[in-house]
Amino acid sequence: KAGVTQTPRYLIKTRGQQVTLSCSPISGHRSVSWYQQTPGQGLQFLFEYFSETQRNKGNFPGRFSGRQFSNSRSEMNVSTLELGDSALYLCASRKPGQGYEQYFGPGTRLTVT
Amino acid sequence: AQSVTQLDSQVPVFEEAPVELRCNYSSSVSVYLFWYVQYPNQGLQLLLKYLSGSTLVKGINGFEAEFNKSQTSFHLRKPSVHISDTAEYFCAVTRNTGGFKTIFGAGTRLFVKA
Question: Could A48 and B104 be called an inter-chain contact, meaning their C-beta atoms sit closer than 8 Å?
């Protein structure tokens, strides 16, 4: 069974630009969560989507948004990029009702210059 | 609110020696406990989980962890480590009350020396 895929794997953007990251969950997994990983703050929860609805959100500014499509694929968008947004963005999928464990993709490394 | 504390940021150990990575948590609601491992330039991989039942859980690669409710701990152990175990290990708590949410500890870098 194919794992969680994230595209692109690496991205370089300039301050003030916006970016869209994509995540394709494991087939049959309808829940997708996003995390930001930085050396200083560690792994921080951004949001979770289930059946195209955002069910929970972490403490991030409104510049961070996401959505989920009917095929469970998810995108996250960051507008007006800041240098501090440089991070590894991880997506994780799970199948609600089957154990709560999450399956992570390899991440997208975003560098803001 | 939930929080997770991993008591050691780095743990150096010699190959074939035992290791324990410590994790303490706090939560006002019922949570589920996990250990994940992250190898360089990769995402996280599930090592083991505690949902309910036996407090000693076994995971992949010879790792095990013990849930201690009174001490709110979930320490990870391995009796004999290998060079290939060098990685970052994350303890995590997940709640499903008021929305699914996972909080991770800061991570412990395990460095296995030959």
Answer: no
- Phi then psi for residue B60, to 5 deg, are -80, 165
Sheet with A5-7, edge to edge strand ranges: A5-7, A19-24, A74-78, A64-68
A21: Cβ contacts below 8 Å, ≥ 6 apart: A6, A7, A8, A11, A75, A76, A77, A89, A91, A108, A110
Only one residue has tokens 């930085």, namely: A38
A103–B46: do the CB atoms touch at under 8 Å? yes
| Whole-number pLDDT of residue A11 | 96
- Return mean pLDDT, chain B: 93
Q: How confident is the model at residue A1 (pLDDT cuts 50, 70, 90)?
A: low
B79: cis peptide before it, omega within 30°? no
User: In whole angstroms, what is the distance from residue A107 CA to residue A98 CA?
Assistant: 23
Burial class (CB in 10 A: 0-12, 13-18, 19+), B58: exposed
Chain B positions contacting chain A at CB under 8 Å are 32, 34, 36, 41-46, 49, 51, 90, 94, 96, 98-107
Query: CA B114 to CA B103: how far, in whole Å?
Result: 33
